[in-house]
Automatic annotation (TrEMBL):
<feature type="binding site">
    <location>
        <position position="22"/>
    </location>
    <ligand>
        <name>Zn(2+)</name>
    </ligand>
</feature>
<feature type="domain" description="23S rRNA (guanine(745)-N(1))-methyltransferase N-terminal">
    <location>
        <begin position="5"/>
        <end position="46"/>
    </location>
</feature>
<protein>
    <submittedName>
        <fullName>rRNA (Guanine-N1)-methyltransferase</fullName>
    </submittedName>
</protein>
<feature type="binding site">
    <location>
        <position position="68"/>
    </location>
    <ligand>
        <name>S-adenosyl-L-methionine</name>
    </ligand>
</feature>
<dbReference type="InterPro" id="IPR048647">
    <property type="entry name" value="RlmA_N"/>
</dbReference>
<keyword id="KW-0479">Metal-binding</keyword>
<dbReference type="InterPro" id="IPR050508">
    <property type="entry name" value="Methyltransf_Superfamily"/>
</dbReference>
<dbReference type="InterPro" id="IPR041698">
    <property type="entry name" value="Methyltransf_25"/>
</dbReference>
<dbReference type="GO" id="GO:0032259">
    <property type="term" value="P:methylation"/>
</dbReference>
<keyword id="KW-0862">Zinc</keyword>
<dbReference type="GO" id="GO:0046872">
    <property type="term" value="F:metal ion binding"/>
</dbReference>
<feature type="binding site">
    <location>
        <position position="190"/>
    </location>
    <ligand>
        <name>S-adenosyl-L-methionine</name>
    </ligand>
</feature>
<keyword id="KW-0489">Methyltransferase</keyword>
<dbReference type="InterPro" id="IPR016718">
    <property type="entry name" value="rRNA_m1G-MeTrfase_A_prd"/>
</dbReference>
<dbReference type="InterPro" id="IPR029063">
    <property type="entry name" value="SAM-dependent_MTases_sf"/>
</dbReference>
<dbReference type="Pfam" id="PF13649">
    <property type="entry name" value="Methyltransf_25"/>
</dbReference>
<dbReference type="Pfam" id="PF21302">
    <property type="entry name" value="Zn_ribbon_RlmA"/>
</dbReference>
Amino acid sequence: MMQLACPLCRQPLDEQPPQLRCSNGHSYDQARQGYWNLLLVQRKRSLDPGDNTAMVQARRAFLDQGHYAPLSDQINGLLSQALAGQSTAVELLDLGCGEGYYSARMEQALQSAGIDIALTGLDISKHAVRAACQRSRTARWLVASGADMPLPPASLDAITLLFSRLMPEPMAKALKPGGLLFLAWPGEQHLIELRRHIYADIRPSDYDPLSQLSEYFSLEQQQAVQYRFTLSDSDSIQTLLGMTPHSQRLAAQARADLAALAQLELTLDVNLAVLKRL
């Protein structure tokens, strides 16, 4: 697995368990759960950035119900196809890995496909990364900023960015020339039924990640994943709501209406793309 870079001076970090240390004497202790916290205090925009404990727990509970497993399988199929035939271990970063559901499944799928994979998961939320440590003991987990990744330039074969904020220049910098970026973002109909319960006016999104990435990446492949699924009890509906940003914007009446629902049929609509570093 590749060497990390010191977030203070960018020198290589040598692993001297349970510590990382660079030649300038900067050192970082490994958390007891197994992850490395390389998010500098002075680079935080809040005291506790990223998803809080409640959102992490809700996301984990919802994803473990399996409703998004077909989406995860589609992502893993794309990864396996694109990364097959590599002669050396594939350095793969799951950027904005959250609590590790997709990360752990992609690690398992790639290994099953005979691909030698060295997986690193990175998220700015320490609560999410702590939970991710329970998903895989073989992946390396980092608390860090995606805008200032503690990685050497041109060190990655591939990055997955699933429903996370775009950072075109940092991602391009971390990838090797010709490295791959796997992207997932919501389509127009994604969870439309839930959004209709929350918002009086639903406007079409003008979000276009591909145009924002065109300076650094060429589009290799694009596809949509669409299917319907049903949440068959109130607890599942509330769990889904708790893992989304929509929960922060709920009016009292909308909250009461959702709490009264015993079942909710939903649409999954997600865009996938494979891009290559120019």
